[in-house]
Design a protein that fits this description.
Helix content: 25-40%
Structural class: mainly alpha
Number of helices: 1
Strand content: under 5%
Largest sheet: none
Distance between the termini: 28 Å
């Protein structure tokens, strides 16, 4: 995926499970990495919160 809006950076996909297999409906959302600022992470969460709000209605 190539996002030109600056919201996403390249994503590295891995085969690791991180205990998601222990129950159905699990997900891990990683916010930020060594190349992100705290402001970028907080800004991203505003968009994620809006999506969760719509989905949970």
């Amino acid at each position: 995926m190539n996002c030109t809006h600056g919201l996403f950076r390249p994503i590295i996909l891995r085969d690791s499970r991180y205990n998601q297999h222990l129950t159905t409906g699990s997900t891990i959302i990683e916010v930020g990495a060594t190349g992100n600022t705290l402001d970028e992470c907080i800004n991203s969460m505003k968009y994620l919160a809006k999506i969760f709000d719509e989905v949970m209605k």
